[in-house]
Amino acid sequence: MIRDILKPTLIIVAVAFICVMALSQVQKLTAPEIAKRALEKQQQSLDLVLPGFDIGPARTAPVDGRDFTWWEGEKREDGEARKGYAFIVRGAGYGGDIESMVGVDEKGVILGLSIIQQAETPGLGDRCVEVAHRETLFDHIRGGIPNGDLPNEPLTPWFQNQFKGVDAGARISIARRGDWNPEMRESLLALNAVSALTGASITTEAVVRSVERGMALLVKARAAAAGKGAEAKQ
Amino acid sequence: MRYWKELVKGIWSRNPQLVIGLGFCPTLAVSTSLSNALWMTLAVIFVLVGSNLIISSVRKIVPGHLRIPIFITIIASFVTVVDLLLEAYQPEVYRSLGIFIPLIVVNCIILGRAEEFAQKNGVFPSVLDGIGMGIGFGLTLAVLAAIREVLGANRLFGYPLVQGMEPAAVMIMAPGAFFTLAFMLWAMNAINARKKGK
């Protein structure tokens, strides 16, 4: 009787033990690489959303009972010092939270947006990080675009690219124009709108609304930090 | 010759999705683009070969009534290894496949092969079975993904095919996957029925 319980228990424990030992080794092996990638990604995102800015260390201030983290950057342009702010926002997408980093100038106009983490449906929502190729597969096989009259744009994901110039302080509307391309920029910016991902309105909505919320939090956080600074001076 | 049979049976005569009818969930979900399909195939082959290898080598010491929890523990370990390796060395792929990598644990092809084959056969045939079944899974997935990506997104491997053509978005969505898979099942059955008739 006791053998009937003890033996299977021991076998299961042994199997679990061996598996866990093996996995902990793999984890030890990959953990530094994963941490490095995360840090690299953060730095890349910062450089992407605040291009050309000198970015200071992360700052934190409590807003509505929670800590809000942001980065401040400075850049000299036309002899003037210009400030930029970057922060991370989260919005509930179709497959968990979508985390993006947003860079804005002093007026709240978006300088850049980069999606750091998402688990949206492949082929639909996850196209929010898709890079737009203008080159067709045949062009690629033949070696580049034939007449080369297309501008040499850097390959950035179009969904994120279109946020540049949008006012994060105002309400951002969502237009249904299909895949964004640089020719659409003017007409969309006039509406303070972005073009939705086809078949993934929840993803689009999540990113857009999280940007608006994040912007409101940034304003509050900066006010709180400024208030604290003033208190400290007194 | 016997071994050769174990290797090739997964590709046509015992194709995991089209003949056995297993693994539809990842097949429907990941077949939105060809590159996703190929990475998914690699991950599944790794897990399938690894779990078949370990399970066939411990098959004599695993008590019958304990086999399911033990097999699942072994499979889950291999899936975690794939998950960590992809996150560390292929972050782009990891990001685009997302939740479907951890979900390989519940891919019925893998537990199905452990139950049906690895626990009854030796190490070498089990490994061959894993490779063959993995390739069969991958071929079905790749054909489905190629059809869906071309028709539904006007792309292949992420590159646009015909400039300015509006793709049929329904193909990239779930109904497109079901329709295409149904046509593939029909084609497979029709060909096999005709073969048998001769």
What's a concise summary of this model?
Chain A is built from 5 helices and 7 strands. With 234 residues, chain A is of the alpha+beta class. A 5-stranded antiparallel β-sheet of chain A has the order 1-2-3-4-5, sandwiched between helices. A two-stranded parallel ribbon of chain A has the order 6-7.
Q: Any overview of this molecule?
A:
The complex is a heterodimer of chains A (234) and B (198). By secondary structure, chain A is an alpha+beta fold. Chain A has one domain. Helices cover 41% and strands 26% of the residues of chain A. Chain A is built from 5 helices and 7 strands. Chain A has helices at 2-49, 137-142, 158-161, 185-190, 201-233, and strands spanning 54-63, 66-77, 80-93, 96-105, 110-117, 173-175, 193-195. Chain A has a 5-stranded antiparallel β-sheet, with helices on both faces. In chain A, a hairpin with a 4-residue loop joins strand 4 and strand 5. The longest helix of chain A has 48 residues, at 2-49. Chain A is globular. Chain A starts with a helix and ends with a helix. The mean pLDDT of chain B is 90. A two-stranded antiparallel sheet of chain B has the order 1-2. The radius of gyration of chain B is 18 Å and the shape is globular. Chain B has 198 residues and is mainly α. In chain B, helix 4 (34-57) packs parallel to helix 7 and helix 8 (123-153) packs across helix 9. Chain B has one domain (4-197). In chain B, a hairpin with a 2-residue loop joins strand 1 (155-156) and strand 2. In chain B, 44% of the residues are buried. Helix content of chain B is 70%, strand content 2%. The A-B interface holds A 7-8, 11-12, 15-16, 19, 22-23, 26-27, 30, 33-34, 37, 41, 95-96, 117-124, 126, 129-131, 133-140, 178, 198-199 and B 29-30, 32-33, 36, 61-63, 65-66, 69-70, 73-74, 76-77, 80-81, 84-85, 87-89, 91, 95-100, 148, 152-153, 155-163, 166, 169, 172-173.
